[in-house]
Amino acid sequence: MVSQRRRPWLQPHERFAELLLAVLSGLRPVHSMLGQTVGEAYDQLVHLAPATPLRARNTTPVIRTCRGFHPRPGVVEAWASIAAGDRVRAMAFRLEQGPDLRWRCAAVEVGTRPHG
Question: Is the pTM of this model over 0.70?
Fold first, then answer.
């Protein structure tokens, strides 16, 4: 279940994983990410969100695992595995810390569904 309350002890990549999951599962509108994205990230969400790639029938998707890597100060490369019923999907995203010290999403990708 996507948390509706902000939990202050979450790392930035964990908080953004929840926000992105809410948008990409159709629980929140894309425009809720305005001001929380930079560069191409908002356009990527606008393109991805209508297909609700992380939505599942009769179940609420949840974050199973979320990990982040700091390649340099002010940058987090992160990935999350999303479970919805018996399906697991992958989501990758990049966070960048601005001069105001706020974290913003700079890129997002969702693993494609296998054909078959």
Answer: yes
